[in-house]
Description:
Layout: E1 7-10, H1 19-29, E2 36-39, H2 66-75, E3 77-82, E4 86-88, H3 92-100, H4 123-128, E5 138-142, E6 148-152, E7 159-161, H5 167-182, E8 187-190, H6 210-222, E9 228-231, H7 237-245, E10 250-252, H8 255-265, H9 269-277, E11 282-284, E12 292-293, H10 303-316, E13 336-337, H11 341-344, H12 349-361, E14 365-369, H13 370-373, H14 380-386, H15 399-405, H16 409-423, E15 430-437, E16 440-447, E17 450-457, E18 462-466
Parallel strand pairs: 1-2, 1-14, 2-3, 3-8, 8-9, 10-11, 11-14
Antiparallel strand pairs: 4-7, 5-6, 12-13, 15-16, 16-17, 17-18
Helix pairs in contact: 8-9, 8-10, 8-12, 12-16
Amino acid sequence: MDKNRIILITYADSLGNNIQDLHRNLNTYFRKAVGGVHILPFFPSSGDHGFAPTTYTEVDAQFGDWKDVEELSADYLLMADYMINHISAKSRYFMDFIQKGDASPYNDLFIDFDHIWGKTPTSAQIAKIYKRKPKAPYRQVTLQDGSSRNVWCTFSDEQIDLNLETETGKEFLKENLIRLASHGVRIMRLDAFAYAIKKADTSCFFIEPEIWQLLEMCRQIVLPYGATIMPEVHEHYSMQLKIAQKGYAVYDFALPMLLLHAIYFGQAANLYHWFSICPRNQYTTLDTHDGIGVVDVYGLLSDEEIEATKNHLFSYGANVKRVYNTEAYNNLDIYQINCTYYSALGNDDQSYLLARAVQFFAPGTPQVYYVGMLAGKNDLRLLEETKEGRNINRHAYSNEEVADQVHCPVVQKLISLMELRNEHPAFDGEFSQEIISPSQLKLMWKNGNDCISLTADFKNLTYEIEY
């Protein structure tokens, strides 16, 4: 299967009820528009919408089984998450540790927070640790014998960090990556990868050189199975450049905000600069299961431009409010904005198709989130029911809703754009670009005698494709 085809990002039950429904809907409506599928965590989980897996040995029964995964992988390039940094607090591994303590075979699978420093760390040492939320990165647990331990938890109390520098941790990693590869997964997305190495008196975030050693170990594990790895890192764009220079594929998390700025203010220069320096071996995104990233674009937009883009989103974007990104909606992550991309552009078809056209002509392989593929609006009902900020962009479509939404004019036009991106041979060639005016950018691809170009006008919100 050609890896340079659009990859859909979806939960197992977001386009129908399960993996079988997902497979059927893709074959029915999107067979030429989608070349790969990134299924977000489909394992039994105790929280965070699948990102607190209890095990990798089985598929959550409500989604299907390994046979369903393998059948999907036969038709589409399959990408799946491996939560390299953590496992569920309700996993049998952690429960065994709670019961047996040092006598548990999984004792050194977890990280004693105090042990890293050889003593209880000072507040100054804890302050150095890179955190996205205002909480200490550990939780105190009481073992069955009555003793207590501080175990490392970067994210929630339900997600217990793993010690990947012990033999137990390395074997656990190897077994799970091989299992995924043996069931048809060809791209392993290493979720929260940058947090996976802990070291005293550091930020405990992307610690070199150990992080490179871990990345290479993962690559070597899956290589015999024809699979690759992709580290997921939300940070300053320079980190993506660094990872790409080592030969690994990366995410383009900068594009969403850059493109919003270009469309909001009719300016092409920042996009031109980014396309000049961005990695070529990358996966582009406009939307994901999380929010629209802000931290990734620092330095590509000025602080004033970032603030102006955020302010414009909240005033122009459809039904999105600042309060959705606060504690009231369980969202204190200041590095993301919760909104569907279609609604961020005011639910305006013309602006949205322009954004997607630019993404499909940008360097890299495009990924399209399932809500974006159906031009989904902010789901305020789900948001209010759950008080979970990120659920504004996580509407689950029934089979009937998919069948209905796919006939919307904007979705039909988007599907045509996706099919063109997948089928035109020029996209396997070389990328070039030129600025035509302060508000116009021309993106070009050439592969032998095959050529295709996009002229995007960010002032008039129009585009023209020639091939």
